[in-house]
Structure formats: structure tokens, C-alpha cells
Amino acid sequence: MITNARIKNYKSILDASVSLRPFTLLIGANGTGKSNFLQLLKKASDDPYSQFPRHVNHPSSDQFFKFQNHEGEIFLIENYYSAGSETIPELQNVSVFSLDPAKAGGKEPLVESPVVHEDGSGVVQVLDSLKTGDREDLFDTIEATLREYIPEIKKLSFVPGQTFKQLQVREKYLTKPIPVSHLSEGTCLALIMLTIMFQENPPSLICIEEIDRSLHPRLFGQIVRLCFDMANRENMPQIIATTHNPYLVDQFRDNEDAVIIVEKEKGETTFTTLEERLMHIDPDEEPLGALWYSGFFGGVPGKGA
Questions:
Q1: Non-local CB neighbours of 183 within 8 Å, separated by 6+ positions
Q2: Cα torsion angle, 126, 131, 132, 133, sign
Q3: Nearest-angstrom CA–CA distance, 70 and 285
Q4: Share of the chain above pLDDT 90, in %
Q5: Other CB atoms within 10 A of residue 133 CB
Q6: Angle at Cα 42 formed by Cα 108 and Cα 193, nearest 5°?
Q7: How many angstroms from the chain centroid is the CA of residue 163?
Q8: Which pairing describes strands 268-273 and 259-265: parallel, antiparallel, or unpaired?
Q9: Taking the chain, what is the end-to-end CA distance rounded to the nearest angstrom?
């Protein structure tokens, strides 16, 4: 797990540090730098020896990125085309997703070496490869874990096809299987995320843009509980997600150190934990999301934007 990142001179981030948890939520107004941070992690993973964009006001200033993991290992990238020693394992395979629940389970062609793509497509291909290959244990783990969170589901199966396959589920009390496309968006999102985590070569770090996109508020607790549980298991990917939704923030009661408030002050991105902001107030009488929405601890338009 990456525990800390120090960033100097990358896009809107001039000089800032951010502490990370197994599952971290980034909140803040549009344009404050949440996506810039995720893009940096992705670029540091894909091409750490390339040129990184700098803050528009400081194009000639020094640039470095320092990442530290839970074992104390450090990976340092300094200035143009100059990187430190071998990257830490957590930065060797970073993926940034913008998941669409509608992409889960639809008809997909069979391909070699399938993966779950950034929009969530590829789930059928990955699951079919696990089921029909020599990693049926991973398929069984996905199916069993999905049942833990969605007890109505009994099993996953495939609509047969020579070149295409489609995913279906059998639910309790129903006499026939139904297409995954008929399931709730929360169930589809849970299926996508579990497939990402348990595919044969999962990302070391999973970044999810607007994790609450198109979800009903009643499903937020379910998805947050899944992410906390998965990210805290041994040998599972770390998760960083962004949101603008106060109801999702409500789910982080007693995990305020895992919420990062991202703001922009005088054109520069800053990172502050929700725990730090709550040190000087008593939040017990109000939900966390309501306090955030009201601007009580910043991270909203007009408050540090």
C-alpha cells in the first residue's frame, strides 16, 4: 500500500503531500486537482522516465515525486527524464477507471488475455477465461464474494455462444436465470469491482473516478463496505476513489482519516484529511456529508476552489 505521496510541481499541484489508506476517498469541487493526482499515479506507473507536465506558473522550477509504501520503501522521480531506483511494487500497475455499471455482463466477444477495461467492459471475457481456464478458483471467489454482499444471488453462469458470451445470474426464488443487465446498478458495479480485483493480474492500485456515478443513495453503504473490506484484505489492491456526493461521505463515519479534502488555493492544489478538519468541531450532531455540503470544512465550490 502507498502510505504517502509528496508531489512537487505537477500540473495544479505545486508542493503538497497526501497520506493514503487502503481505501481512500477524494472529495472537493471540480477543477481542484483530484483527477490530476490520479493521472500522476497512472503516469508514474506507466512511464516514470518520461517528461511530466509542470505547473503553468512554475515551468522551470524543480520537480520531484516521492512515494512511500507501508514497508518504508521509497520511489523517487526527479526532474526531466531522471528517475530513482526501481519502482515500488504498488506503482508497477496502476489503473484509472471511470466505471459504467451498464457495461457489466453484456454480450462480449471471446478474446485472449482479457482484462477489465477503464469503463468496466471486459467482465464477461475475464470471468469466462477464469471459468474455462485453470483459474476457476478465482471465478469461485468472485461468485462467493458477490453472494456475501448480494445474498439474493445464487450463482453466475453464461449464455452459451461460439464467439460471444453473455453473463446471467440465478437469483433465489426465481425459476430461471436472468441477464446481468436486469440487475441493479449497485450489483453491477460490485460485480465489476470484484472482477477487477480478482482477475489473474489485477492492478496494484485501483483508481475510480466518481465511484458513485448513477448509483442510488441506498447503494452507497453497500459499495463503501465492499471497498473497505476488499482493500483491507491481504494481497488485495489499494483503492482510491473520487466523489462529489455528500451521501457517500456519510459512509466514512469513524474512517475520517481516509477522506481527503482536495482544494485549490491561489491556483495550487492542497490535500487535507477530513480527520484534521474535524479536530476543531463536534460533528456528532450532523452527518459528515451535510457538513461538507454546507461548506463547514471546505472542499466545495467557493470554499478553497
A1: 104, 105, 169, 191
A2: positive
A3: 35
A4: 61
A5: 11
A6: 40
A7: 31
A8: antiparallel
A9: 29
Sort 98 into a burial class: Cβ within 10 Å, 0-12 / 13-18 / 19+. Answer: middle
3-state secondary structure of 136: helix
Question: CA-CA distance, 244 to 239, in Å (whole number)?
Answer: 17
SS3 169: strand
* Better-scored residue on pLDDT, 216 or 15: 15
Backbone angles phi, psi at 193, to 5 degrees: -65, -40
The stretch 32-38 carries a mean pLDDT of: 96
Confidence check: pLDDT of 120 > 60 = yes
Long-range contacts of 125-132, Cβ-Cβ distance < 8 Å, separation of 24 or more: 125/165, 126/195, 126/199, 127/156, 127/158, 127/167, 127/195, 128/158, 128/165, 129/200, 130/199, 130/200, 131/158
- Whether 281 contacts 296, CB under 8 Å: yes
pLDDT (tens digit per residue) in 219-265: 788 888 889 999 999 889 999 999 988 888 888 988 999 999 999 99
CA-CA distance, 196 to 219, in Å (whole number)?
Answer: 19
Whole-structure pTM value = 0.89
* Helix runs in the chain, H state only: 34-46, 123-132, 136-149, 185-198, 220-231, 246-249, 274-278, 288-293
Phi-psi region of 65 (alpha: psi -120 to 50; beta: other; left: phi over 0): beta
